[in-house]
Amino acid sequence: MLAPDVTVDSNTVEQVDNFVHLGNNQSSDGSSQSDMKRRIGLASAAMTNLERSIPVAAYKSLGFPNSWETWTILAADRKRL
Questions:
Q1: DSSP-derived secondary structure letter, 20
Q2: What burial class does residue 54 get, using C-beta atoms within 10 Å of its C-beta: 0-12 exposed, 13-18 middle, 19+ buried?
Q3: pLDDT digit string (tens) for 18-73?
Q4: Residues 22 and 11: beta-carbon distance below 8 Å
Q5: How far is 27 from 32, CA to CA, in rounded Å?
Q6: To 10 degrees, the CA torsion angle through 71, 46, 23, 63?
Q7: How far out from the chain centre does Cα 19 lie?
């Protein structure tokens, strides 16, 4: 169910189901699954690129971003992580 139209300076603002804000994928249903999928994909691509360009020991020491701390983790999601 979509919210009522929002108008700013006589312009109607487009309603969307998902958008990225400050690096986080925001979804209209409030779930974290789309953000998790996006970040896992980005991390996978980044790690693939790193594997091709630097030694394994170097990229294993890089660590991971901490935005996962704000995700709502479901049982099905836990298996993917």
A1: E
A2: exposed
A3: 888 887 888 878 778 888 888 888 888 888 887 777 666 665 566 555 555 566 67
A4: no
A5: 8
A6: 60
A7: 10
| CA nearest neighbour of 38 among 56, 65, 16, 62 | 65
Alpha-carbon gap, residue 41 to 19, rounded angstroms: 16
Rounded to two decimals, the pTM is 0.48
Torsional class of 30: left (φ above 0), alpha (ψ -120 to 50), beta (otherwise): left
Each domain of the chain, given as residue ranges in start order, spans 19-80
Beta bridge partners of 19: 26
